[in-house]
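Researcher: Structure for this, please.
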Amino acid sequence: MVDSRLPSRWLHDPRIDLVSDAAWRVFTYSLMLANEQGSDGFIARSQLRFLHPEGVSESAVEELVRAALWSLDGMDFRVLRWSETQTTAAALEAQRERSRETSRRHRATKGASPTGPAVTGHVTGRALGKERQGQARTGKAVDLGTGHGAWGRTAPTADERGLAGRSRPGAVSLLL
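Model: Predicted structure, token format:
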């Protein structure tokens, strides 16, 4: 996630103080959009619709250009002095690569993959992947019709349900 910065010095900057609320909103949204896109302040004319819910007025664009917050870039726009207040795309990619390398080194020293059993090892005793430790429960049937089986009664009997002596089509017996 990339954050856009609004430096506190802008509180006293006459360029900022002279723009309308609508132009200020367009400007701050342009910072967020350009950061999200990694465009180093470039705003395509087709992206203006993302900068204000009612659309960006020509007067707001003119205010930003006149205040030297934006400049024309062909038919599009560019946030001026981008690298003074925002992280450039190159610097952000370098930071991400350093973070990936740090993570790789950490995982290599711990000898664990990011999705391996080390995550739950302190709880499971690293038993993941081992054969079952207990005795197998084979050959003990549970009749779903009566609820009787290997582990005792688990459901009401046929007598209790008023089904005594009736044959149930599709009755299943499970072998656990």
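Researcher: Any notable elements?
Model: The radius of gyration is 33 Å. DSSP finds six helices and five strands in the chain.
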